[in-house]
Amino acid sequence: MILLALVLLAQSGLRQITRVSQDEPAYSPDGARIVFISDVDGPNNVFTMDADGRHVVRLTQHALSDDGPIWSSDGSRIAYSAMDKATGVSEIYLMTADGTGAVNLTRGAGYDRYPCFSPDGRRIVFESNRAEHSQILIMEADGSGVRVLVDGPGQLSAPRFSPDGKLVIFPREQGAETRVFTVPVP
Q1: Burial of 155 per CB tally in 10 Å (0-12, 13-18, 19+)
Q2: Separation of alpha carbons 160 and 185, rounded Å
Q3: Whose CA is closest to 89, among 62, 129, 117, 148?
Q4: For residues 110 and 132, is the Cβ–Cβ distance under 8 A?
Q5: Reading across the β-sheet that carries 89-96, which strands appear in turn?
Q6: Cis peptide, bond prior to residue 69, ω within 30 of zero
Q7: How far apart are CA 72 and CA 79, in angstroms?
Q8: CB contact at 8 A, 109 and 130
Q9: φ, ψ of residue 25 in degrees (nearest 5)
Q10: By C-alpha distance, which of 78, 81, 114 is closest to 97?
């Protein structure tokens, strides 16, 4: 039975490329690197590795719990959220692709998470509960000009830009139903 499972695994093309606990992988725009979250040494931190799983590099090392890392369209920057589990506050951070120069872009109460760069790299869209309910916010990539793109009702999450940057797509959960919506980007 084990031999059959190994044969089926080999035939499917499925290949494990990490040996540690990891989550939320995302390819760099050129496909050469992968950014991911791992709790290998404590709370979730951001790591990168080559696309084949070699050369793992830890980019963050702090007591915060990181989430949702994503590359800028040119591959030079990574945005992610980091939560202080003691306070429940989560902020959006931006760093260079080598992990240097990390900057907190948001300073709201509650949580700000799941950032996504616009295709041109000039803006970041993210989910938030700053208003004590779910919102989709947008800001310039330097953290300035934060404004509401979508304001409740329901749980709004994981916003993503369309390839041309003219729309944002996101799921909205209300009651037992989840639907996908788009909204134009002003």
Answers
A1: middle
A2: 11
A3: 129
A4: yes
A5: 65-71, 77-84, 89-96, 103-104
A6: no
A7: 8
A8: yes
A9: -75, 150
A10: 78
Q: Confidence class of residue 23 from pLDDT cuts 50, 70 and 90?
A: confident
Residue 9 has pLDDT above 60, yes or no: no
pTM given for the model: 0.86
Task: Tell the residue number behind the tokens 């490329």, with chain if given.
Answer: 17
CA 180 to chain centre: 18
Query: Residue 149: what pLDDT?
Result: 95
Nearest C-alpha neighbor of 133 from the set 119, 150, 109, 151: 151
Q: Which domains, ranges and CATH numbers included, belong to the chain? A: 21-184 (2.120.10.30)
Q: 99-139: per-residue pLDDT in tens?
A: 999 999 998 777 899 999 999 999 999 999 888 789 999 99
